[in-house]
């Protein structure tokens, strides 16, 4: 069954890897990995520390005005500049990446709803204050969910499926870094909620 599962997975992933190699010259599953690293991590790191971080030229014939999406030719720019900044500041960038990576999973859609929608139209008002309370509650719920899932490591430390799925979740969050918002983290939610239910059941059963 493991060989069959691997072959099925390869049939899905390999065409995308080949496609990204041909178009982006990057043999990877994600076509814009360095794009995400630059816009979501390196650029913010530079801005927080007042470091010079040039932006690539945007081909307006390829994209809509006021967007950040650039052409495939800019991938080389993202890759070279990101490596240059990271290698020049390895310790500080690693600390920045780790702290933002830990904060990102606690973000939820309510934060965006409050800051980008309600505050723009109704600030200051009682509606915004109430919404901020719900946003804080949402963050607390996510924190509790992750806590229960990781506490489950005690009960399932010898379960290879738990170890695999928890490793997959951590790996995906690490890949996204500061760029991981509630939208980008959706691929891990099915695994996360399944583990949450299983861990919650085991914790209740042990009490």
What does this structure look like?
It is a single chain. 69% of the residues lie in helices and 0% in strands. It contains eight helices and no strands. It has helices spanning 2-24, 33-48, 75-88, 90-103, 109-122, 126-151, 160-176, 189-206. The two termini are 36 Å apart. The model is unreliable at 60-67 (pLDDT under 50).
Please give a quick description of this structure.
The chain is an all-alpha fold and 207 residues long. The protein has helices spanning 2-24, 33-48, 75-88, 90-103, 109-122, 126-151, 160-176, 189-206.
How can the largest sheet be summarized? Answer: none
β-strand percent reads under 5%
Question: Which consecutive residue ranges, at least 5 long each, have pLDDT under 50?
Answer: 60-67
Task: Tell me the number of strands.
Answer: 0
> Cα-atom Rg, whole angstroms?
20 Å
- Shape call: globular
What percent of residues adopt helix (DSSP H or I)? 55-70%
What class do helices, strands and sheet pairing give? mainly alpha
Q: What is the H/E order?
A: HHHHHHHH
**How many helices in DSSP terms?**
8
What is the residue-mean pLDDT, rounded to a whole number? 76
Separation of the first and last Cα atoms: 36 Å
Task: Explain the layout of strands and helices.
Elements: H1 2-24, H2 33-48, H3 75-88, H4 90-103, H5 109-122, H6 126-151, H7 160-176, H8 189-206
Helix pairs in contact: 2-3, 5-6, 6-8
